[in-house]
User: Fold these one by one.
Assistant:
Number 1:
Amino acid sequence: MTDLRSLSLEDLTAQLSSRGYPAFRAKQIRQWLDRGVTEFDQMTNLPKDLRVTLAELFTVPGVKILRKLTSTIDGTVKYLFQLDDGETVESVLMQYKHGWSQCLSTQVGCKMGCTFCATGMGGFVRNLSAAEIYAQIEAAQQDTGVRVSSVVLMGMGEPLDNYEQVVRFLRMLGEEGGVHIGMRHISLSTCGVVPGIYRLMEEQIPLTLSISLHAPNDAIRSLSMPVNKRWPMEELLKACRDYIEATGRRISFEYAMIDGLNDSDACAEELAERLRGMLCHVNLIPVNTVEGKKQQRSSKERIRSFVAVLERKGINVTVRRTLGSDINASCGQLRRQQDSH
Ligand code: SAH
Ligand code: SF4
C-alpha cells in the first residue's frame, strides 16, 4: 500500500482523478492530514465511497508518543516516538529566542558507527520514510500546541544515507497545506558522506549544511569516525569548498570537544589551518557522556583556550549552549534506555 503522506498534492490529485474524483478532494484530504487526522472515517467531508477507496489504497504512517521528558531547566521536550512497526526514534523540541526548533530523526539507528555516539552503538535498523520524518513535527506541534519554526536533521541516523526520503521530506515542508518551514530554517547534519554532499548541491535547496568534523586531521578523525576511512578529510573539505562555491552558502562545522582526544591547542591550530579562507563557522559542542563509553567532555578552560586559538586565527566560532541537560537531550540515549528495560 502507498504511504499517503509521501504523495505530493499533484500525485494524489492524479490518482483520485483517474478514479473519477475532482481535484478539490485531494486538497480536503491534505487538510485533514495537516490537522493530524489520520483515520479515513474521521474525514467527514469526504463521501463514504471515497473513504473506503482511500482505506484500500493508502496507509498514513504516523508516530505515537511512547515517552516524553520535559526539562525543568529550559522547557526542552524530548520525545521517544513509536513508528507503526513498533520501532522507536527520538526527537527533541527546543526553545530559542527566535522560536521553537525541532531536531528530527531520519533513520532507526545508524550504519556509521561513530564511537562517541549513542545512536551508532545499536547499529542500523531501517530508513524512515519522508512521511515518518514529517510526522515527528506534526506530533510535537499537536502535543505542545507550539508552532515549530525551524528544523535540524540531527537526530538519530545519517540523513545523507537516506537521501531520497530526506529530500522528499524537505519538499513536503513547502507544499501547499504543509507546515511551511522555509529552507533557510532547515539544517542538515552529515558525518561526511561526500557523494551525498554533491547530490545535495545539485538540488539547489538553500538549507544550512552542517558537517560533523570533530577532528583536525585524519589520524584523530579515523579513531572515532569510521566514515573517515571511506572519505578522508581532504576529500570531505574539497566537497565542502565546492559546495560553498556552488551555493554561496556558509557551512557549519560541528566539533565535539572530547577530553584528551581532540581538544589541545595544537588541534585548534591545525583545524584553523585546514579551514583557512573558507566561508564557514565552527560550532564547538562539549561532548555528551554516553553510558558504556569512556569519553569525557573537555573542561571549560580547555574549551576557552581552544576558542581563543581559533579566534586569533580568524575562524568564526561559537560554543553550543547545552539545552535539556537534565533530560539527557542528546539523541540516541532514550531509545537505548528503552531497549534495556
Ligand atoms: N548523522 C549525522 C546527524 C545526526 S548526529 C551526523 O553525524 O552529523 C547529530 C550531531 O550530534 C552530530 O554532529 C554528531 O557528531 C553529534 N553527536 C553524536 N554523539 C554525540 C555526543 N555523545 N556528544 C555530542 N555530540 C554528539
Ligand atoms: Fe550516525 Fe551521526 Fe551518530 Fe555518527 S554521529 S553514528 S553518523 S548518528
Note: The longest strand covers residues 88-96.
Number 2:
Amino acid sequence: MAKIWRNIRGTFDILPWPSVADGTAVPGSSAWQYVEDVIRRTMARFHFEEIRTPVLEEEGLIVRGIGEGSDIVTKEMFVVERGNDRYVLRPEVTAPVMRAWLQHHLEQRGGVQRLYYIGPCFRAERPQKGRYRQFHQFGCETIGADDPRADAEVIALMLAVYDAFGITGSRLRINTLGLPEERKQYVEALRAWLTPHKDTLSESGRQRLEKNPLRILDTKDEREQALLRDAPLLIDFTGEQTRERYESVKQCLGDAGIDFIEDFLLVRGLDYYMHTAFELESPDLGAQSALAGGGRYDLLASALGSNCPAPGVGFAAGIERLLLALDAQDATIPEALPPDVFLVALGDDAQRWAFREAQRLRRQGISASFDLKGRSMKAQMREAHRQRAPFTLIAGQTELEAGVVQLKNMDSGEQVQLSADKVPEHISKCLRDARGSEDSAPVSSR
Ligand code: AMP
C-alpha cells in the first residue's frame, strides 16, 4: 500500500471545514479567521499595533530570553541545526518581540511601543486536549513604560478580547513577583521551609526544590497544594516599593471595573518576570485551564545583553484554548461565506462561457464558483447546494446561441431568463435585494 504522509503528532491541519485531530475538534479555517479578526479589532480599539517576527530565532536568544532552567529551554525546544548554526522554532513571542525592539531601536519612536502579535509557537510538550506542539498565540507587549497603568492596560486588553467573544465565567488571578532581590530571599526561605517536608513532595517537586522552588507553587498535585497552604508567601518578603506598585496596579484595575482574585502562590513559568504577574483561567477547559497569562518583564532586555532599559509588560494567550472555551460555551461562530453565485454549464461551449463569466463577475467583486469536472447538470446543482450558493447561473448550447442565461434563486426556486451581457448588473441587484439593502454600496462584503 502506498504511504500516506501524516502531520506530526501534536500538530494539526486547519481545513476549510471543522475536523477532528487526535480526538479533539479543530474548527474550520473560517472560524480561525473570525477569531483572528475579532482579536485584531480589539487590539486596534486599544491602539496596539501589529508586529510580526520570524518563526525561527537563534537558540541563544530563546535560551537567554526564557531562562536556562525553565521547562521550555530544558525540555521543550524544537532545535533546527544548519551548519554550525542552531535555531529554535519560537516557543513564545515575548523574547523575539524584545529582540526586534532592541534591534530596530524602537525606543526612538515615541518612547513607548504598544505591540501585538498573532502566530504559531512550538513546544515539544506531551500532546493532550488544549496542549499541542504547534499552537497559536496572540498577545501584546507594552515596551518602554514602567507605569503601573501599563500593567492594568494589558490586563484590560486581554479581558476585552474574551469579552468581545462573549466568553464568561473566566477568573483573573494576580500577584506580585517583587524585585529580583526580594524573590531571591523568598526562594531561600521557601526552600528552607519545604526541605523538612521533602517526603510529601512529588518526584518533580523534589527536583524543583533543588533547581527552582518557585515552580512548586504552581503545582497541580493535591498533596503539594495542601502543604503549600502554610508555606511562606512572597508578598511577605517584599518592600515598600514593590507593595506600592502592586497597590497602584490593583487600584487601576478597580478603576477599570475589573474583578480579580489575589493569588499569592501565582508564579510564571518564565524567569524574566518581576512585579505584576497574572493569569486568566476558564472553568470550561479541564486540565489545561489557562486561557492566558502574562506579567512584567523589566529584566528581559538586560538578560539579552542590552544596556538599554526596556521595561515591558504583556500577555500571551492560546487561540486553541480560546476556541475550546467558545465551543464549551456554545458560542456562535459565523459560518464560511458561500459564493454569491455558482455557474452551471452544459456542454463544451458553456464550460468556456462559465470560466469567462466567472472571471467577469469576480472582477466586479461578485464571488463566483463553477464546476471543474464536466459533471452532469444534476451533479452541478448538487454542488451549488453544497456550497450554499444563493444563486445559480445556468447555460447550455441553446441559451448561449440565443444570448441568454437562466438565473435561479436557490432559496425560492424561482428562475428567470436574462440577457447574457446583463448578468453582473442583474446579479448585483439580486444580491442587494437578498441582503435587504437599498443602498448602492459595493455588492459584496468581501
Ligand atoms: P505561556 O507562554 O506558557 O504563559 O502560555 C501562554 C498561553 O499560551 C497559555 O495560557 C495557553 O493558552 C497557551 N499555550 C501555552 N502552551 C500551549 C500548548 N502547548 N498548546 C496550546 N496552548 C498553549
Note: Residues 19-179+238-328 form a domain with the BirA Bifunctional Protein; domain 2 fold (CATH 3.30.930.10).
